[in-house]
Amino acid sequence: MSEPTLYELSATGRKAVSLPECDVKLATIPEHLIRADNGLPELTEQQIVRHYLRLSQRNFGVDCGFYPLGSCTMKHNPKTSEQTARLPGFAQIHPFQDEAIVQGALQLMFELQEQLKEIGGFEAVSLQPTAGAQGELTALLMIRAYHAARGEGHRNEILIPDSAHGTNPASATMAGYIAVEVPSDGRGNVDLDAVRAACSGRLAGIMLTNPNTLGLFEERVEELVGLVRESGGVVYGDGANMNALTAIARPGDLGIDLMHFNLHKTFATPHGGGGPGSGPLGASSQLAPYLPSPIVERLPEDKKGSVEYTLTCPSHSIGRMSSFHGSFGMFVRAYSYLRRLGAPGLRAAAIDAVLNSNYLRVRLRDDYPVPFDRTCMHEFVCEGQPKGSEVRAIDVSKRLMDFGFHPPTNYFPLTVREALMIEPTENECKATLDAFVEAMRAIAKEAREEPGRLREAPSATPVRRLDEVRAARELTVCEPTLRT
Ligand SMILES: *Cc1c(COP(=O)(O)O)cnc(C)c1O
Q1: Shared-domain flag, residues 92 and 234
Q2: Does ligand 1 have an atom closer than 6 angstroms to the CB of 397?
Q3: pLDDT tens digits, one per residue of 107-141
Q4: Are 171 and 312 in the same domain?
Q5: Does 393 share its domain with 248?
Q6: Strands 258-260 and 295-299, how do they pair?
Q7: How many angstroms does the Cα of residue 270 sit away from the middle of ligand 1?
Q8: CA-to-CA distance for 267 and 51, rounded, in angstroms?
Q9: Ligand 1 centroid to 133 CA: how many Å?
Q10: Cβ(410) to ligand 1 under 6 A?
C-alpha cells in the first residue's frame, strides 16, 4: 500500500500559514543565494497534519496495544512521568548551568542514585551510562581497572552463559576480553560444572543474567557466585530483568558486584527508538571507587541546616562514559515513577509481572511447548512451532500482527528451537491476556489446518512481510521523491 508523499500532494499556491505584512526593512540577500524554485512542496496545514498523523499511526507502540516483547520489558510509560519531565525547570535546564542554580536537579539525581542503591543492594550508583549495553561496557572497563590495580591485569577471560543477551559478548569483546561461553543445564540454569571447569587464573569475571533470558531464576546463584569469587573473578549482573525482582530480592545481597539497571525497562521510561535510554550502574564497596564520574553527593548540613549537592569523581574512576550527566530527562521520568509507586507499589508490580507471565505460560503450553517448564519469572520461552504443525515461529509472529498484537521476541535465546520469548508485564489486565491466548490458540489451529495462511501473513498491515535482512542492510529512510 503506497501512501502519497508530501511532494505528490503538493499544488502550487497552497499555504499552511499566512504571515502578516512585513513591517521591517528588507535585508538584501546576495543574488547567488536566491533560488527561484527550491522545490519544496506546497500544502495546506490540514494536509500536513493528516499526512504525518497517518504515518505516525503505522507505528506500533506500548500505547497502541499489547507488546509482549520478551527481554525488553515494554511496560507502560506513565503520563505522570511525562508531565513531570515537561516541567520547565527540568525540560529547559542546561548542563553548563552552575551547580549553585541547579540544586533541585542534583537533588533528584542524588535521590535516584539512593533509590537504585537500595533496590540493587549496592554501595554506590553512577547514572552515566546511556543504555544497558553501555552499562555492561562500563562495568567491564571497571573490572579491567580493578584487576590492573591489584597487579592482576593478565586476567582476560569473561564467562558468558549461552542464554545471555547478544550485547554481553559484544561488550566483553569491546572491552578487550575473551568471551568464554558456558552452557546451560537441563533445568535452564548455568551449568555449574562447566563454570567450575572454566575458572582459572585467567578469569576476570562472569556476566550473569538473573532471572536469565529463559525467564528462569538461577537456582544455585550463590554457589555460582562463590565459584567465580574464589577464582578471583568479579560477578557482573545484567539487570535487564529486574522487573521480576524489584523490591523482592537484591542482587547485591546475592553477591553481585556490579549491575546495570535499564530505566527504559524496569522503571517505565520510554525506549525512545534507540535514543535516550539510561543504564545506571550499581557497584559493591570493592568496585565503587572505579565508577564513572560524575556522581552526585550530598554535602553535610551547614550550620543553618541547609543541604547542598555537588558533582564528585570516585577515587579510581574510569572517567566519563557519556557527555554531561547522562540522560537527565529519563532520570526525571524514572524518579517520578519510583516516587509514585514506593516500595509496596514496586513489589506489587514485580509480583504481578511474574503472575501474568506464569498465567500465559500455563494457558499456552498445550499448543506451544515450553522446554523448561517450571515456574517462571516475568517472562518465559516457548517453541513457536505449534504442536502438530510445520510452520515456523516467524509465521506465528507475523500472523499475530493481523490480530493486532505486537509479536513476542523471535529466535532468542538461541538455546530453544523456534523460540518465542513472551513478556506480558504487570500492566496488562486479564482481558488482554485472555485475548492474546485466544489469538495464539486460533493461530495454532490455523497452523495445523491452513498453514499457507500463516506463511503469507501479515495481510492486515500497511506493509506485508518484509525482507528484514535486506531492509536492515539497505536502509532507505528518505521519501521516494527525494532519492537521487
Ligand atoms: C535489553 C537488554 C540488554 C541491553 O540493554 P539496552 O538498554 O537495550 O542496551 C542487555 N541484556 C538483556 C538481558 C536485555 O534484555
Answers
A1: yes
A2: no
A3: 999 999 999 999 999 999 999 999 999 999 999 99
A4: yes
A5: no
A6: unpaired
A7: 14
A8: 33
A9: 6
A10: no
Q: How far is the CA of 144 from the centre of ligand 1 (A)?
A: 21
Q: Which residues contact 435 (CB under 8 A, 6 or more apart)?
A: 66
CA 460 – ligand 1 centroid, Å: 31
Domain interval for residue 430: 348-471
Instruction: Write the residue with the smallest CA distance to atom 15 of ligand 1.
Output: 71
User: Which candidate, 17, 39, 3, 22, places its Cα nearest to that of 482?
Assistant: 39
Same domain, 422 and 306: no
Please identify, by atom number, the ligand 1 atom nearest to the C-alpha of residue 71: 15
Residue carrying C-alpha cell 535482512: 469
Instruction: Look at the block and give the residue holding cell 520478551.
Output: 70
Dihedral sign computed on CA atoms, order 456, 457, 461, 465:
negative
221, 192 in Cβ contact below 8 A? no
Count of domains observed in the chain: 3
Is the CB of 165 inside a 6 Å radius of any atom of ligand 1?
yes
260 lines ligand 1 (CB under 6 A): no
Q: What sections of 365-429 are H helices per DSSP?
A: 393-402
The mean per-residue pLDDT over the stretch 456-461 comes to 92
Q: Is the pTM of this model over 0.85?
A: yes
Query: Are 404 and 280 members of one domain?
Result: no
Whether residue 174 sits in one domain with residue 105: yes
Q: Residue 263: CB within 6 Å of ligand 1?
A: no
**Domain boundary at 338, 372, 387, which?**
338
Which atom of ligand 1 lies nearest, measured to the CA of 73? 15
pLDDT band at 195 (very low <50, low <70, confident <90, very high): very high
Contact (CB, 8 A) for 9 and 483? no
